[in-house]
Amino acid sequence: MNNTRPTAAVEPTNTTIFTMAQAPEHPSKWAVTKSAPMPDAVTRLLDTVPDWFGQPESNAEYINDARSMETWSVLGDDGTVIGLALTAQHFPQSLEIHLMVVESAYHGQGIGTALIKAIEADAKRNGAKLLEVKTLAASHPDAHYARTRHFYEKMGFVPLEETDLWGEDTPCLIMVKPLI
Description:
Elements: E1 15-19, E2 31-35, H1 39-48, H2 56-65, E3 70-75, E4 81-91, E5 94-102, H3 111-125, E6 130-136, H4 143-154, E7 158-163, E8 172-178
Parallel strand pairs: 5-6
Antiparallel strand pairs: 1-2, 2-3, 3-4, 4-5, 6-8, 7-8
Helix pairs in contact: 1-2
């Protein structure tokens, strides 16, 4: 279940915003682009990670959200989208990473890190002071989401609150990262 307020339609830029060469502490070849909406890419990517995104109703919401939310993408050597994030700016001071998904075959290769760094750099440039992400809380015993929480912690996010936003059986952990 998604509890994100609707955002205005995004004007696509298809412009490379950030390359990992700009972050020497994380050398990588991945270029991140602020892209046109990509609901078909979201559909394909979600299908590659059923251990994380295995609820058809939630996936349908993410695919629908991909039609209007700001989209960030990483392309593979063949031009296929291999990583993608959707963001929502509810207030000028903060930005939510609404969805981040990396094709399963590319996990652990720096794509998620590149996406976070690009979103963070753009958010700072635009005056945001806080990044937010929601994920499955540790009170739910899921090894895949334990990896997800570890990734976000490694990226500087800290737990803020656990809530039943997604229902009693799906505890939501809100994590934040200060940008100042």
